Fold these 3 entries.
Entry 1:
Amino acid sequence: MSNHHSIDQSIMDYKKGSSHLHEALPEVAGAYFNFTEACFEEGALDKKQKQLTALGISITKQDEYCILYHAKGAAEAGATEAEIMETVAISAALGGGAAFAQGVTLALDAYNHYQGPAAH
């Protein structure tokens, strides 16, 4: 998935679906969104560490939308490519070949898309 439009479109599709759920079930979705937002606030772990952790879990679980979302979050929180690669390696160690494949393709493509001064 090296097509940058596909990465952006996938993030937009996720946000659109989330908004639709929020319209249909505002209390349920609102509670979930508040919970997840609170989980990613800086605490004992900084925002970058939390995004890298979430990325690693997403890769291991092979959750493509979360891989994209947390690769973006890690890039925006200042993660380096070396940190992304270590996260991929840890995920592959725990999740096997499928996690390795998701990490070296989808996660790395999304990180590269959202990092640096050329980021969208």
Note: The mean pLDDT is 92.
Entry 2:
Amino acid sequence: MHYGSKGWYVEQLKQAGVRTYEERKIERYKKHVLAKLLEKTK
């Protein structure tokens, strides 16, 4: 997994316990949305 890729963000969010966002799985979102979500969770 490359640092900063969409898969990397999904993996980091799952490790933080985030599986869904606004009742949708995080895999459905674009990378920039996942980056902002990860920033909020830290």
Note: Residues 6-41 form one domain.
Entry 3:
Amino acid sequence: MEAYNCGKGREETITHPTRTVVRTRTTEQVKKHIHPTEIINVNRTVIRNEHFYPVYEREVNETVEKGSSDCERDMDREISFWF
């Protein structure tokens, strides 16, 4: 495009590419993230069983009588115990 100025001669207009200015407006949002935790309290009772086997010991006095041949046959039946 040419334009004439009074007495100054010819004037030239040069158009440059459009300068782009990016203006960023930032807004902030809050997003809540919930991470639940469950705690389980366990009350444990342990039962330990103990087994006892008591042993008792005692003495027995035995008397065996020997005599005639009739007594010897019945010897097993004639044993006496004293407690």
Note: The beta strands are 2-5, 9-12, 61-63, 80-82.
